[in-house]
Fold these 2 entries.
Entry 1:
Amino acid sequence: MDNIIQVEGLRKTYGTTVAVEEVSFEVRAGEIFGMVGPNGAGKTTTIECLEGLRKPDAGMVRVLGVDPQRESHSLRERTGIQLQQSNLPDRMKVWEALDLYSSFYPRTADWKELLGQLGLEEKRNAPFARLSGGQKQRLFIALALLPDPQLVFLDELTTGLDPQARHAIWDLVRDVRARGKTVFLTTHFMEEAERLCDRVAILDHGKIVALDTPAALIRSLETEERVVFNVEGALPASFAQALPGAVRLEVQGGRVVIHGKNGRQAPLVSEVVSLLSGQGILFRDLHTEQPTLEDVFLSLTGREMRE
Amino acid sequence: MKSLLKMSWMEAKLFLREPASAFFTLVFPLMYLFLYGAISGNEPTPMYNGQRTIEVAIPSLTAVIITMAGLMSNTMTMATYREKGILRRLQTTPVSPLIVLVAQVLVIFAMTSLGMLLLIAAGKLVYHVHFAGNAFSVLGGFVLSSLSFFGIGFILAGVMPTVRSAWAVAMVLVYPMLLLSGAFFSVEILPAAVQKVSAFIPLTYVVNLLRGLWAGEPWGQHLLDVGVLTGMLVVGVVASAKTFRWE
């Protein structure tokens, strides 16, 4: 079974509001698949249809080969779920939560090991209410990994976390993939999707507007690469003509920005560097600026505020 | 089965860690018992057909415990679990909603029983109360009364949209019930008009049944109480299951 998730023509409406429609995609075994989109684009509706928490109005959904509506019980034994918003009782201790949830599954990972892997060893006896946001999130990831699932759903997993906690959680998710599991996640951080996901679907107004690897999505944007550096003094007037890969050159004081042409094989940066050293020009702080997934996202979904 | 036991044990620990629920179920009724003891002295009272006030207080305060645990604690726990997404987290696991409800019933029932046992122990040790009834009859009446009341909590938690509104409705129900059912002071001392109102208060039937059985009256004298409470139990079970929502 290569496709862990298969979705065709998914549609879900709430009253007269169409949350998602015509959504089709598949998730392959062993990948981290990300779904990004503005608030209200339908990410959570989609993930909840996959989890069996919501019933689609139309379309075909198969998760681990079964219909989540019909076989929710068997599916819940084989999937790990982290919800966007959920809680445990305030006075429940970390170890008690893991111990209790272990009793729900026929087969589980060792929760004592999970405590260590998620850095919660010291918080073992802490009540849920006393945990920080990052610790709560790690506990929820531990609960999601508890059934030793083939597939893990992570909905907005790093929202509200500080950069340290976010990076630690990214490492955790990569670990999960390294153990052969498949991850389906939603996020509204483009950096998170770009760094973490093998493939990304961009959802807008309930429809998938793009789906590919982050690198391919960025290439498809056809935005040029830019080379930026500082020079002492002025550049020779002929400098731009000596660069076949450049379309435009901007100079502001000592700062130079060279815009490259699209679709060229040779990287602009090596042309620039060899020209600079060939002409004996001193330069500092040279770097290239690549378009990011965020640029792709904004070009596809527009810049107007949502909600 | 394993998850039911674990969940019940967990809920029991959480109940005892929650100061308000532990206080109102276990400590508050005892305080009232000692208060009655101090006020009434320990002599037989004609109003209670020769029973002492303290002997009437034990079954009456048991009715108070049933109300506090079944209506207040139960409503608040279930409404909070729903509002905070605790039930939703459970919904993502293979655990059945029945296990969640049964564990809650077991724990509230255990805590109510513990509250009653504390009253009986205090009554025996401090006031040497005389028990004229049949222990099994009292136990039976207690089980029926408790279970018939727990349903109200589940229904309130299921029907009310938020914890705050569930709490408000529970308060509105609890206070008149406690005052007019005879749980705190006997209906016999209230004006006749108010006594009529007490016939519409479900807790009145709990107080009548438990007091009667405690005093050794036969079940036959309490068919109305048993009928009303059985009806509440049936409605409670059906409506609790119908109104249960994960979110």
Entry 2:
Amino acid sequence: MEGQDDYILKISNLSVSFPNEQILDNINFQLQKGTTLAIVGPNGAGKSTLFRALLNLVPHSGKIEWAGKVKIGYVPQKLSVSDIPISVKEFLAFKGAMNIDDPLGKVGLNSKEILGKTLGVLSGGQLQRVLIAWAIIDKPNVLLFDEPTAGVDLDSEEAIYRMLSELKKENDITILLISHDLHIVEEYSDYMLALNKCVTFFGESKQIMNPDLQRMIYGEPVCTENIEHNRRSQ
Amino acid sequence: MTDGSIFSLIIGVSVGLAAGYLGSLMVLEKMALVGDALSHVALPGLALGILFNFNPFFGAFAFLFGSAVAIWQLGRITKLSFETLVGATFTLALAIGILLIRDLDALEAALFGDLTVVSLLDAILGVIVSIIAISLTKVIYDKLVLGMISEELATSTGINVARTNLLYLLLVSLVVAIGIKITGTLLVGFLVVTPAAAARNVSSNLFRYSLLSSIFAAASACAGVLLSNYLTITPGPLVVLSGVAIFVTAVFIKWLSKFPSVSLRSRVGST
């Protein structure tokens, strides 16, 4: 078992509720530094809300403890870029960074070709790469990706996850990502958190292909004592 | 040109630049109709200025400012869209304003603008208000655009989206209040909306878009004021017609750019 200092995030009794609706109910889990956590679950399970709570964008109860100084890069699920005449250069400049060639190179984009293009005309894969470049531009140590390959073709999807994997290794980044693609979860994440308003499973991602587990995750929610799962999986 | 004509031109160009710059955000925010409708809210304030013999600009600004804050708060509480809230209030304001202004000449000036009585003080006020509005908008421009792209993304970088939107609405109120002098309450929304729509047709980046929007609005106001002096008719409709000519030209250039053989293609939307 890893020492306590290796944890970058500890969540205890986290709940989020909106009027007349409980979105997250008593979430508990811990995450080690330098690992990738995939968050899975049916639509409306509270996956994106969990991210918003981690970013302190929604009111919540319970404890969210980040270890030491964390700098979080975030890529949300939905962006409205089609009607806004903004170039890639202008978009990345919002972060105030002087050097935008490096992050673009890291995500496999040629800055000379891409910087002058309007965000709205980029392909799904290009846009996702630009968003990842945006997220890593100020060298975060935690990345939150809400469905990083939504609207991207299969080849680009694999390429983006390979790139995320390399970024994690090179920069010792902890990644939390939301995905519906179980193959991706198995291949590119270390742990998975199954949500259905409460935690229905927390464990190693290689277990995701177990049909009984899939039925548990996507069927009727059965909340677990997730901290115990976490401990057993270490 | 007379002094009055020069003052009219100064106020027209400066307010045009500010209205075009702020309007570029309003069109992106899909709040074009809000900009138009919001301008009508100024009428009761203008009426009070006329009735109690103080500068109608201050009355108009007070009403626009108050309405903007009220609409912003109502939007936060009720989650209704700006369009709905502005739509619900602007006709009421228009009705109250028309009832309060009994002098038909004053009503015409309030509705359609009047540059015949522009003083040096008006011109100076117009320039100062425009400089303040452009400078403050420049500070929040990126924040507002990021909030339009994704409110969560903006908030996650530490931007207070609600407060930034409120400041923007207040700046719009300021510019609309001074713009009423040129085009009147019925037509001032034009200066905020149409030049930006024209610029959107021929821009592929924010810098070019906001710059062209400002230039188009200033050119519309300038042409309208000059024609008004020349033809001795009310300036509002002439400003609108000048701006529409620019809009049609921009749409035509965009249409031409679809044909690969047209040399304009390399210029339009590629800067």
